Amino acid sequence: MQKNQIVKISKRLSYVLRHRPEEIELIMDEEGWVEVDLLLDRFSNNYFPITLADLQKVVAQNDKKRFAFSDDEAYIRASQGHSIQIDLGYEAIKPPAQLYHGTATRFVHSIREQGLKKRNRHHVHLSADIDTATKVGGRHGQPVILTVNALDMQQDGYKFFQSENGVWLTDQVPVQYLEFP
Ligand code: HQG
């Protein structure tokens, strides 16, 4: 399968597994899992036929490992990035002293006033390294990297989670834990 085909399927999967399962009548459990057979069936009914082998390739080769199969490969879900309410079941864990958030320069004024908010997503997304944060921020415009004093936050009672694909997640970041460049 060509790389652009993998990207195309991955985008469609992100959309239905994170945001709009009902659009193709997927049934999703409270942890975000969807039956693989049902998903293949719904894709083909909605003019987007893919095979199980395609799906396996997308899960394995997706650049950010955005999707995961259950152990028996009967179910699939997105590992993070949802806007719909589901419980991914991640355990709160201790973060490193510092994490990073890449954003665009035009958001900085508002972030200085409000801190980081999750907006349409379930969580604020944080990166373990500056390179990744720069890519995340660059999706929105001229990137700027904010440093988050994550361990201080956790010691003050804020919870941190790490998604299966390594993205750090938290509910919000109040401005006193942020360092601006
Ligand atoms: C900004 C991609 C104004 C925030 C990436 C961000 C990531 C504020 C934007 C994942 C704000 C939301 C998530 C405030 C936050 N005022 N702007 N108070 N608080 N913002 O896309 O973190 O490819 O929802 O800085 O790699 O950019 O989807 O979040 O710029 O992991 O797998 O509001 O999406 O992963 O944008 O990206 P997003 P994000 P996937």
Automatic annotation (TrEMBL):
Sorted UniProt keywords: NAD, Transferase
EC number: 2.7.1.-
Gene Ontology biological process: tRNA splicing, via endonucleolytic cleavage and ligation
InterPro entries: Ptrans_KptA/Tpt1, RNA_2'-PTrans_C, RNA_2'-PTrans_KptA, RNA_2'-PTrans_N
GO molecular function, one term: tRNA 2'-phosphotransferase activity
Catalytic class of the enzyme: transferase
Record carries keyword Transferase: yes
Domain of life, source organism: Bacteria
Gene3D superfamilies: 3.20.170.30, RNA 2'-phosphotransferase, Tpt1/KptA family, N-terminal domain
Annotated function: Removes the 2'-phosphate from RNA via an intermediate in which the phosphate is ADP-ribosylated by NAD followed by a presumed transesterification to release the RNA and generate ADP-ribose 1''-2''-cyclic phosphate (APPR>P). May function as an ADP-ribosylase.
HAMAP family, alphabetized: KptA (MF_00299)
Family affiliation: Belongs to the KptA/TPT1 family.
Name the UniProt record assigns to this protein: Probable RNA 2'-phosphotransferase
